[in-house]
Amino acid sequence: MEEIDINQLMRPRKICVCRQVSESDIRKAIQSGATSLQEISLQTQASTNCGTCASAVDAILQDELKKLRKIV
Ligand code: FES
Question: What is the pTM of this model?
Fold first, then answer.
């Protein structure tokens, strides 16, 4: 039987490991008005250190903006 790490299941996946920012944090920033990577960085601190998460943050931004455009 495979052992399951319950902490790993409960913990939201971090998109920005340096600043410990989750996908949920990024989506909340967009839903509250952020429309660019820079604005997300200001609100969440994502992508303000090594920058390797920038493309993942941008992908979430594009996805969330697409969803918001469908709603409006
Ligand atoms: S992983 Fe996001 S700044 Fe390093």
Answer: 0.83
